[in-house]
Structure formats: structure tokens, C-alpha cells
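S.,

Sequence below, as promised.
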Amino acid sequence: MDRSFLADKDVISASRKFVCIRLATYENADENEVLKGFFARGGNLENTVFTLLTPDGKTKLVTAGRSPAWAFGGVSGRGINAQPEESIKKMGQTMEAIALAYPGKGKAAKGSPPLPYLADLRLALNITAADRQPLVVVFSKSAEERKKMEQELSKVAWSDQFIGDAQYVFASDALEFKSVKKFKTKSGFIVIQPGTFGLTGEVIDVIDAQLSADKLIEPLAKALDKHKPSTLTYDQHRRMGAQAGAHWKSATPNTDGLSRRGGGRRPRR
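The prediction came back faster than expected:
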């Protein structure tokens, strides 16, 4: 997905008026079918899909494609006529106009929204590596303790200081951490540095599970500051991954590029 669009401050500001949904391609068969309904050349789901929808989730309000550039123009995808800065500005303006057209009904719920959990720890390591962000795991074998931890962490995660700075997942079984170095079977907010290729991770810090939101702020900020994002370019990442034999096995078949390569051939790994 095109970070130049999604990292723009005006786009981020406009996004707070939307319900933003991130589906992990090839990780859920039902979600794959939803994505194919929006964009699938030759009937094949591609690796990334972007569009904006009406509140019922059925009608596309902009051109669907592999990235925002397909809808707003830019340096990738189908639209190459507009300048990137103009395209990004157009995205923010379009989102603001859509938000005015669909203002929503009723009042917002009180309190902080739930944590934006990723599906599971294995997938979370891969996504955070790709997004070059740290991962915070709410870990406890007790569902009751996890609920209390989530309530406190959500107050912090959605604050202006932390919003967008990390991603989140919960875990209840120590076996889920089999690919994470320096893990100890202790409940807590576990901050992880994802491995370069998203297959492994390493614990940066473990924060006391009993801390209230106001006591969480300082240790969480210090832990997130220890994260060191990858500086590899896309080509360097692909080359080094191939040399290392790194391979992500998705839950459903990867069909990216099948239509463009003639349909019958298997995608390259």
C-alpha cells in the first residue's frame, strides 16, 4: 500500500471521520471474497486492494485498485498524470467531502475505542515488519486479566501521543511466542521488535500487566523508542529475503499477478 498517501497528515486527519478496515490479503478466505468484490482483474485477488465505500460497505465511492494512486493519481498504479503532492492533497479533500456527505447518526460511544488488534501473533509479526513499526502484545493466560489490561492500554493507544506509533495483538498461550527471542512466560504488555522479514521477533521490553493507563505512558514510550525500523529499500529487502530463504506461507493461495501472467501459471515465491 502506498505509504506516501496514508502517511499524509491531512489524510490521517480525514481518516478519523471514517471506519478504517485493514484486511490481510490471503489470510482469510471469507475476507478474500469481500476484497475480490471490489477489485480483482481476471477474477484473481491481488496482493493489495484500496477503495472508499458508502456506510453500507457495498458501493464504491472512488476507483478501486491496488493503492490510493489508482483513485487519485500519482506515481504508482494506473494514474500517472497527476503530481504525487497533488494526488495526496486530492485524497484528503475527497475524504473530507465524503465525510460531510455521510455524517453518521447518533453519538459516539463513551470511553476509548477497543484496541485495533491484528488477527494473531504470527500475522502481527509479519505486518509490523512490513510497516516498520513495533508490536505490543497484551499477554496473559487469564481472560479476565487481559480484559483489564486492554481497558488501560486502549486509553493510551488512542491518545495523541501514541496513536499510529505501534500495532497491537493479544496472546493467551506462551507457544504463540515460539518465533520470538528473549520471551519469558510472564504476563505483561510485551513490546516486540519484528524481524526484518516478519517471520521472527525479539522482545524489547515487558511492562507490568497491573499498571493503570497513567502509569503505562512513560514505560511504553521508552519501550517504543527502542524500536529500530528496517532501512532496507524494497529491492534490497526482496534480494536479501531470497538469499536468506525467507518465505511467508499464507493461509490461502497467493494469486497475485495471475491475470497479468496468463492465469494458469503459479505465482513466483
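The chain has two domains: 3-101, 121-225.

Coffee later?
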